[in-house]
Amino acid sequence: MADMTSTRSTAAVTRSGQASAIGEKAVCTLAASAEAAPKFRSFVRAAGTRWNLPGEAEDALMVIASELATNSYLHSGSADVWLMLRNGPEFIEIEVADQGSWKRSGCGSRSRFATHGRGLGIIDAYAASVSIQRGLAGTRTVARVTK
Q1: For the chain, how far is it from start to end, CA to CA, in angstroms?
Q2: 91-113 pLDDT per residue, tens
Q3: Domain Histidine kinase/HSP90-like ATPase spans what residues (predicted)?
């Protein structure tokens, strides 16, 4: 069962005069399964629509959420995967965490024709910054996408 919540903070007015929920967060916890990636994409799209994000930023966040959910499912062994979005003034921050023990599968390829092992490279291409923390408590990835 999905646990999806949202917290509200202050609203600001953008240059176009539309309200933007700066400081707002949206959180979703799902079972780490093949269904997590499309559910996270839907969750991100709903938050992007609610926060009036630019289309390019929303698309980038959807790709990042999908890649990280898939990595968690394929590589961590975690039962659950957790996603949080933070709406900042210049960036949207996406954080994905699990409680598994992530292991590199060895399928990463530098070939542009590879069909597996390109997820972290894709995330790097979409994000302004990425940090990955692996430890006994699981894996936590934070990426920032420019608005």
Answers
A1: 31
A2: 999 999 999 986 655 554 555 54
A3: 31-142
Indicate the pTM of the whole model.
0.78
Q: 103: Cβ–Cβ under 8 A, 6 or more apart, which residues?
A: 75
Tell me, what DSSP letter sits at residue 90?
S
On whether the CB atoms of residues 33 and 81 are closer than 8 A, the answer is: no
Distance between CA atoms of residues 11 and 145, nearest Å: 20
Q: Name the residue ranges covered by the structural domains of the chain.
A: 3-8+22-146
CATH number of the domain at 3-8+22-146, out of 2.60.120.10, 3.30.420.40, 3.60.130.10, 3.30.565.10? Answer: 3.30.565.10
